[in-house]
Amino acid sequence: MYYVHVETCMYMYNYKLVINVNLVFQHTVITVSCSFAPYTLHSKNREKENMPIVKTFLLLSVLLVINYSQKSDGVLEEWCIADEQTPESELQVGLDWACGKGGANCSKIQAGQACFKPDTVRAHSSYAFNNYYQKFKHRGGSCYFNSAAITTDLNPSHDSCNYELTP
Length: 167
Hints:
two-stranded antiparallel ribbon; alpha+beta; single chain; 167 residues
């Protein structure tokens, strides 16, 4: 997971505007907060000298986050996998739903198929969750599974097991 925090100050009339920007990559969260405070002439002159540098740094930070969170063609790459903190019993419930009523194609996690190994509930859940997510994300499907799954920008494919990606 990547994390960037930027804080900058701007002066507007008789107030100092403080802007905080927090950017998180893995879950693609961008938070911007602003606050106003009165300022004195002394602090205004001292901090105002650095404004072009601060504004440039803020802009570059935002562009950096956007660049790294997307492919070069502008498409966000995002897979849905089992959360490492979720107990196997909850993952099994999500796996059963995804491969049953959910409509995921779970044929590749059957014995002898490309994604059967590792033969664990967590690995099979990750494959099934992602298959469901890629199939239905543009039609209202989510990567939730009762809090058993998370999204990642790291491709979980391994060996001959290819996790699908739908732009």
